[in-house]
Amino acid sequence: MTRAFTASRTFDRPATEVWAQLTDWEHAARWLGVDDIHPGGPTAVGTELVFRARGKSRRSEIVALDPGRSITLRSRQGGVTADYTYAVEAQGAGSRATLTAEVRTTGAWTLLAPVIRAAIRREDARQLDRLAQALAGT
Question: Which Pfam families does this chain map to (predicted)?
Answer without folding.
Answer: Polyketide_cyc2 (PF10604)
